[in-house]
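Ticket closed. Logging final result for SRPBCC domain-containing protein.
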Amino acid sequence: MPRSCACCASPVPSDSASRTARRWRAIRRRRASRSPADVGETGRAPDSCRSRGHDPPMPGPRIHVAQFVAADLSRVWTALTTSAGVGSWWWSHWAGVDVRFDAVVGDDYSIAAPQQGIHLVGRFEAVEPESRLVLTWRWRDAERSDPEERVEIRLTPSTERPGTEVTVQHSGPWTSDAPGELNLQGWTFTLGQLARTLA
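Final structure:
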């Protein structure tokens, strides 16, 4: 039976999941081959900004993705901020995904798909219940760790129909269009998984 592509919702042959994982790793290798001077700052907020309690602007190039979810704020928030919730939909087209994701400011998280060789890690920077989640984002494997990126997720009640609007802004120290395009495709597909799971 065909399954969905990791980057879009279209049906694809079952062996394409491994091709998708290889494509992700290839893009990450190209990004990692650049020197720190090429990629610029890691995207961490200035200490002076944090010490004042300000939420710094998202640095560098960014992408924006919006998804309607036919569920109330409470259900969507739980699905986005707990290990059990995230584990029910994130990369659900792959087997053996390990999710450690409980949103507490300052805590680390980890989402790994060992069979695909994909590992995502980061730290929670802001947690505003049923409203906003900010986290750092870094791809990691046995050979390298990519530069740190930043993700902001906002939830708002839909004004047009019962449900919740989920918006994601993802920024990074990207020096080409490829990482942003990859993240745009990935978030579009992944948020689609969230919407289908909670429908």
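Confidence is low (pLDDT under 50) at residues 1-17, 31-58. No further action required.
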